[in-house]
Amino acid sequence: MPRHGKKYRQLKEKIDRAKLYPVSEAFELLSELKAADFDESVDVAFNLGVDPRKADQMVRGTTVLPHGTGKSIRVLVFAKGEKEKEAQEAGADYVGADDLIEKIKGGWLEFDRAIATPDIMKDVSRLGKVLGPRGLMPNPKSGTVTFDLAKAIQEVKAGKVEFRVEKAGIVHCNIGKHGFGGEKLKENFQALASALLQAKPETAKGTYIKSVAISTTMGPGIKIDPLSLRS
Predict the structure, then answer these.
(1) CA of 28: how far to CAs of 65, 75, 188, in Å?
(2) Which of 3, 179, 196, 214 has the smallest count of CB within 10 Å of its CB?
(3) Model pLDDT for residues 123-161, shown as the tens digit of each residue
């Protein structure tokens, strides 16, 4: 939707641009703002008071959204032998080792999350330049390098999301679909906000969460009062 379109302007008029909305009120308002004919994704942006250039101020982590993201997640697993069979039985969409590595080298990227067993990471690491920039590289910190494949696959399919602060100090994350309704979106948001608060670096000084905004894919943003995150 063009930012100058009539419908966009009408939606924007319903939002008090000078107001920081309490969490509950923000999601009640969001549920009333339908900008497109399709079921839009709902995204949140946190502006953090950290310097991501410093290793001890990097903010990253994972959380399982109680209502998922509304998306069907295609899971790829790098594994061999018995672990390959375990991954298939646990519901992985693609399972393999050298064959998948070569396929990805050739430009194939038809998956949303990648998981790997630790013993194969040396081979998978060759894909760093392909998977890294896309946020698809398996990582022990996010639970995607593990021998417990059944648990990892189940969590990802259930709505486990990964967050990581960008260079400008912003964390972007999808928290579901507009069709979920305000209450479910609020609960997903609170799960993410809680994980983000727990991930606060000890070296971060001053205000940690400086600002928060939510929006649908095509709609205007709603500013949330950071002080209401726990309410």
Answers:
(1) 19, 33, 14
(2) 3
(3) 999 999 999 988 899 999 889 999 999 999 999 998 899
Structure tokens at 130: 């392909």
Q: What is the DSSP letter of 115?
A: E
φ/ψ (deg, to 5) at 173: -155, 145
- What is the spatial distance between Cα 217 and Cα 208, in angstroms, rounded to a whole number? 26
Average pLDDT across the chain, whole number:
92
DSSP letters spanning 161-176: EEEE--TTSEEEEEEE
What is the C-alpha to C-alpha distance for residues 36 and 7, in angstroms, rounded to an integer? 9
What is the reported pTM? 0.81
CA distance to 25, 100, 110, per residue, from 9 (Å): 21, 47, 36
Domains annotated for the chain, with CATH where assigned, are: 17-68+161-228 (3.30.190.20), 75-157 (3.40.50.790)
158 — phi, psi (to 5°)?
A: -80, -10
Residue in the structure block whose two tokens are 């002080």: 227
Which run of H or of E encompasses 212? strand 209-216
> β-strand 209-216 against 222-224: which pairing, if any?
antiparallel
